[in-house]
UniProtKB/TrEMBL annotation:
It comes from Amphimedon queenslandica (Sponge). Gene3D superfamilies: Tetratricopeptide repeat domain. PANTHER family: TETRATRICOPEPTIDE REPEAT PROTEIN 32 (PTHR47059:SF1). This is Uncharacterized protein. The keyword Membrane does not apply. Keywords: TPR repeat. The keyword S-adenosyl-L-methionine does not apply. InterPro entries: TPR-like_helical_dom_sf (IPR011990), TPR_rpt (IPR019734). TPR repeats lie at residues 44-77, 78-111. The lineage of its organism: Eukaryota, Metazoa, Porifera, Demospongiae, Heteroscleromorpha. The gene is 100634931.
């Protein structure tokens, strides 16, 4: 858990490179973590946080992979579905965004940002909005 606490501290100081390194070390050490739910939750949070850093670096494909890993570790982590849905939306993959945002709301019905973004996704789908690459 040393890397986890270090990563959280670095993130709070907006030291993204260093936080990313600490998260890599934590994730790489996952084999030494037991499979109890606390360890899986920590690992899910680590993947989600690393995904957020990759999102900030505009490395969307890598961020999606991390959000997906977070969901595998903890399928109840609503924020990981939300984050992945946000990227799908930005990439013009509206149907995938809708699925993720619906799941985020199913897990956390009071997730205001997810509800607002889902409304926008559904509006874009209904209007036949096409994403231009």
């Amino acid at each position: 858990m040393e890397f986890y606490e270090k990563a959280k501290d670095l993130l709070s100081k907006n030291q993204l490179e260093e936080c990313h390194e600490a998260l890599n070390k934590l994730i790489d050490s996952r084999n030494s973590l037991s499979s109890n739910s606390l360890s899986l939750q920590v690992l899910a949070d680590a993947y989600n946080t690393r995904g957020h850093i990759k999102y900030l670096w505009v490395d969307f494909d890598a961020a999606i992979l991390d959000y997906s890993e977070a969901i595998q570790c903890d399928p109840s982590l609503a924020v990981a579905y939300y984050n992945r849905g946000q990227i799908h939306y930005r990439m013009g993959r509206y149907s995938l965004a809708e699925v993720d945002l619906l799941q985020a709301l199913k897990l956390k019905p009071d997730f205001t940002d997810a509800a607002l973004n889902l409304r926008q996704v559904q509006k874009d789908i209904a209007s036949g909005h096409k994403f231009n690459v």
